[in-house]
Amino acid sequence: MRKTTTIALLATAVVALGCGAGSTDNTSSSSNDAGGTKSEDKPAKVAKVGEPARDGKFEFTVKSSKCGVAKIGTDVIGAKAQGQFCLVTVNVKNIGKEAQMFDGSSQKAYAADGTEYSADTGAAIYANKNAETFLNDINPGNQVNGVVVFDIPKNVKLTKLELHDSMFSGGVTVALS
Fold first, then answer.
1. Does the record bear Transmembrane helix in its keywords (predicted)?
2. CA end-to-end span of the chain, whole Å?
3. Domain residues of the chain, as ranges?
4. pLDDT in tens, 118-153
5. Contact residues for 127 (Cβ-Cβ < 8 A; gap 6+)
6. Phi then psi for 15, rounded to 5 degrees?
């Protein structure tokens, strides 16, 4: 009977560790402050269009967004939206100490009901005059301007963006309305 209890406790500990208990990842703090509330309960700052917002090594400034675009490119070569394209013009500045690649596919857009939309990196090639804008590393202190494209249903309006310096970062929210 004692052997069974020990095995059960070991199995529980392994499952708990696998689920993050005992993790040393400090990306979100749960320590109590003087008011007794957890710091992770505080709402994250939400930037607006035209305001800089930082995630990791990048500072993003959304310049504008335009939806309702049916086609990007020329008559000969381009991309046609399944629904409508939303073109988000953004400035990305490397605020880190080493080169970092901007990955358009790591960016997300959201509708008011919380539906998440991923970027259409294929269409973005046609939306950017310099197709290499987001395919090269951005060196420290340098910045690039470009367009991130989202293909969303015709009847949807985007309300916010979640911009990331990489696919593994926490991201920063930018309100579109």
1. no
2. 63
3. 44-175
4. 999 999 989 987 755 566 789 999 999 999 999 999
5. 72, 85, 87, 147, 149
6. -65, -45
- Other C-beta atoms closer than 10 Å to the C-beta of 32 total 10
The DSSP bridge partners found for residue 151 are 85
Confidence of residue 37 (pLDDT cuts 50, 70, 90): very low
CA–CA gap between residue 88 and residue 98 (Å, rounded): 26
> Would you put residue 56 in left (φ > 0), alpha (ψ -120 to 50) or beta?
left
H runs (alpha helix) in the chain: 2-18, 121-127
Query: What is d(CA 29, CA 38) in angstroms, rounded to the nearest whole number?
Result: 8
CATH number attached to the domain at 44-175:
2.60.40.1240
Q: Smallest Cα–Cα separation from 163: which of 142, 148, 145?
A: 148
pTM: 0.73
The β-bridge partners of 14 are none
Q: Are 157 and 67 in contact (CB under 8 A)?
A: yes
| Residue located via tokens 């596919």 | 105
Please answer whether residues 123 and 149 qualify as being in contact, where contact means their C-beta atoms are separated by less than 8 angstroms: yes
